[in-house]
Amino acid sequence: MQGSEAIVLAMFGTTVESALRDLLAIRDAVQTAYPLTPVKMAFTSNQIRRIWHRRAADPAYLAEHPEISPDILQIQGILATIANLQDQGFVRQVVQSTHVVPAEEFHDLAAYVRGLQSIRTMKPRWQPFQAIALGRPLLGTYSLKHTYEHDIRLAAQTLAEDAALAHRHGAALVYMGHGNHYFPAGGLYLEFAARMRELYPEVLTLIGTVEGFPVLDDVVQSLRQHRVQRVLLKPLLIVAGDHATNDLVGPEEDSWQSILTREGFEVVAEVRGLGAQVAPIFVQHVADAAADAGVELR
Questions:
Q1: CA pair distance 218, 239, nearest whole angstrom
Q2: How far apart, in Å, do the first and last CA atoms of the chain sit?
């Protein structure tokens, strides 16, 4: 069916207004690549959606923030977004993850997509979907066709300007990833850091996570071993939201900037999400998922 294709961008979301720019940069890049295909955002966080819906009902907030689009104020979850598109006749969908690693949230998203793929009606013509595909996250996932090693290397190549900025500051580059206490994603983070060091040997690149492994103590130990004096902090997160503004550089004594400063390091911070930088990678992942599923995007 011509014109039955749509793209859904599955994003955790953010409540920080300034951080929306990175999510919108990804949406705009995908929409530019496929101008004739509807591109919808969905926030997977229930709490974040509720906050935006409360704001949408608050006249004072709307008057103070006229820049916030209805797409954000009325944002829906992944299942509602997919269902609404299907109800409008978009029966061939690509659901693109915008997660960094294939951890807990990506696996939940994959479970939703598998469930929808499994629907079988008695008469084939009443199938709700002709195709529904899932695009892999930034650093890849299990795939016999698209190796995670390639995705990690491409991400490292894309973030060359981060290494260049650290080099100009004469600093080690320390990324904060999110991590997960229940899913072993630390190896992907460490491989990413290793590829950064390989591509940009003049800069020591390290990574720690808010949850799980590796932790900040591991980073501090490596900084001491390499006799580092200055550190450039940057979030390895799609948006510079709450984790970046509080856990990374917040004024509290347990923020990474506060801890590293107490440990004797000179700290420079680049509080910017990855979204705009890595948007072209997600465009490619959309293309790969569509091609693998036989979905022609326009």
A1: 24
A2: 13
Beta bridge partners of 233: 174, 269
Say if pTM beats, i.e. exceeds, 0.70: yes
Residue with tokens 């900025």: 165
**Residue 219, CA distances (Å) to 208, 228, 258, 259, 278 in order:** 6, 11, 14, 12, 24
* Residue pointed to by tokens 């990574």: 207
Count of beta carbons in the 10 Å neighbourhood of residue 3: 12
Q: What is the pLDDT of residue 2?
A: 54
Q: Which residues contact 250 (CB under 8 A, 6 or more apart)?
A: 257, 258
On the CB side of 32, how many CA atoms lie within 13 Å of its CA?
Answer: 11
**Residue pair 287/297 in contact by the 8 Å Cβ criterion:** yes
Cα separation, 75 vs 268, in Å, equals 35
Series of mean pLDDT values for 10-residue runs along the chain (298 residues) = 86 96 98 98 97 98 96 97 97 97 94 96 94 97 93 98 98 95 88 98 97 94 97 96 88 95 96 97 98 96
Strands (E), 226-271: 230-235, 266-269
With beta carbons less than 8 A apart as the criterion, state whether 159 and 144 touch. Answer: no
**Phi, psi (rounded to 5 degrees) for 207:** -140, 140
Residue 185 near residue 101, CB atoms below 8 Å: yes
Q: How far apart are CA 95 and CA 48, in angstroms?
A: 20
In the chain, DSSP finds a helix count (H) and a strand count (E) of: 13, 8
**Could you tell me the two tokens for 214?**
């590796």
Chain center to CA of 218 = 24
Cα 225 from chain centre: 31
Question: Rounded distance, CA 169 to CA 203, Å?
Answer: 10
